[in-house]
Design a protein that fits this description.
This protein has 20 helices and eight strands. Helix content is 56%, strand content 8%. The strands form two sheets. The chain has a six-stranded mixed sheet with strand order 2-5-6-7-4-8. The chain has two domains: 182 residues, Rossmann fold (3-Layer(aba) Sandwich); 150 residues, no CATH class. The two termini are 36 Å apart. With 408 residues, it is of the alpha/beta class. Bound molecules: adenosine-5'-triphosphate (ATP) and magnesium ion. The site of adenosine-5'-triphosphate has 14 residues, from helix 6 and helix 14.
Length: 408
């Protein structure tokens, strides 16, 4: 597994960025001002960065009296809303497995050397298609590539530009490609299957073909410096001709166990000594996306921050038990009492086959206490069901929804 940070090699020194920002402002180059401003704020120490990023976003949205962003962005033929939005580069890391990472590095290397390759008659087609379920990091990947290439991150959501009038859809698509050719940024075509999906609704197949053709022409007309990344949750719906325009394809799946451990470690801000916690949580979160892990981990950290306590790994374990039972949940806010905690610990241990060491780390109890409980449990099934009833737990030791809800 590997990790593709906004590496120091690619990041300019803050003093260069400040000068470039001033120059861009003097030249009224607002796309560059937004990009450089985002870079500068991203380089601030963490405690300053979060608040400043929010203020910057407000400024970009025009709340601070600045020029509205994307003044030059193409507008929807009918609604007149912008078809392309420029998003800031991501500031957090992207976790990928080695194979995916290698493919992206190759894509980036070719896009960086586009001019040189074109000079040798080998102009690359820098088009990458990302296919995978929601929350697997497709948008994040595209943002990282934009950052690595130092290009503005222009995002167009095709599902929002598809109009009931196919003629308007085609005009919108042309508008997007003209803009990207002019701005020479990275175009991220999100939900690219929206155009293909329209086939089911379209009464006039001939007209739909013209829409797909507009997309193909747009892709073909871009010069070798333009980079296009498209994303889809439904790769099978894509027109084969569109598919062929993307020589780089990445199927992003829900992360495997090793990658999940890295995600838990990062989003819970664990230190290396807590690797066993990350590994235990990774083993318990099979089937979750990177986004699910981030949501659960950040919810637990927010609760801990507000309550001025440590992050509750047992509450995370409870949420993962719900997830494993098919119900996505965030960690509970309230404290469980002793009996309910014991029931939860047993249920989690059984469901995920955890070792006594893992249970002791997750539930902050001594190894001996867990081992003793395991002996007690083996010795008396009857006692356990009595305790379960008292504590509002089901006979199998799982706290009932009511018992857990009462403590939220
Ligand atoms: N591989 C990953 N590395 C780091 N964080 C990740 C990863 N995958 C997902 N995340 C987290 O999940 C969030 C959502 O990911 P993202 O929006 O990129 O998913 P997506 O595949 O584009 O989803 P959708 O199909 O719904 O648009 C990210 O902002 C990040 O916090
Ligand atoms: Mg996305």
């Amino acid at each position: 597994m590997s990790f593709m940070p906004l590496g120091p090699m690619q990041e300019p020194r803050p003093s260069d960025t400040v000068l470039a920002l001033i120059e861009a402002a003097l030249n009224s180059d607002f796309v560059a001002v937004r990009r450089l401003g985002t870079t500068l704020v991203g380089s601030l120490p963490e405690r300053e960065r979060v608040g400043t990023q929010e203020r910057l976003t407000r400024l970009f949205r025009g709340a601070g009296g600045t020029r509205p962003p994307h003044a030059m962005a193409p507008l929807d033929v009918k609604t007149k809303s912008p078809l392309v939005e420029e998003l800031p580069w991501p500031t957090g890391p992207l976790f990928l497995d080695d194979e995916d990472s290698q493919l992206l590095e190759r894509f980036i290397a070719e896009a960086q050397a586009a001019d040189e390759l074109a000079g040798a008659g080998l102009a690359p087609r820098s088009n990458l298609l990302l296919v995978g379920p929601p929350g697997t990091g497709k948008t994040l990947t595209a943002g990282h590539i934009a950052a690595r290439l130092g290009l503005p991150f222009h995002v167009a959501r095709l599902d929002t530009i598809v109009s009931s009038l196919l003629g308007d859809t085609a005009k919108n698509i042309r508008g997007i490609f003209d803009f990207v050719q002019r701005e020479q940024g990275l175009l991220f075509l999100d939900e690219i299957d929206a155009v293909a999906k329209q086939r089911d609704d379209a009464r006039d197949i001939g007209e739909l073909k013209r829409v797909v053709n507009t997309l193909l022409q747009g892709l073909d007309r871009l010069d070798h410096r333009c980079v296009v990344i498209a994303a889809s949750n439904h790769g099978h719906l894509l027109d084969p001709a569109v598919w062929r325009r993307f020589p780089y394809r990445l199927t992003v799946d829900r992360p495997a166990e090793g990658l999940r451990a890295s995600l838990w470690s990062h989003y819970l801000s664990l230190d290396p000594a807590e690797a066993s916690i990350a590994n235990a949580l990774a083993g318990m979160s099979e089937g979750l996306s990177g986004s699910d892990v981030a949501e659960i981990a950040l919810a637990a950290r927010r609760t801990a921050h507000l309550k001025r306590t440590k992050v509750s790994f047992s509450a995370i374990a409870g949420a993962l038990l719900d997830c494993a039972n098919g119900k996505f949940s965030l960690p509970t806010i309230g404290e469980l009492d002793r009996d309910a905690t014991l029931s939860l610990r047993r249920a989690v241990g059984e469901r995920f086959g955890l070792t006594n060491g893992q249970l002791s780390a997750l539930f902050s109890v001594t190894y001996e206490a867990v081992a003793k409980d395991a002996r007690v449990k083996r010795a008396g099934g009857k006692q356990r069901s009595g305790l379960a009833q008292q504590s509002g737990a089901a006979a199998d030791g799982t706290p009932t929804a009511g018992a857990r809800d009462r403590r939220r």
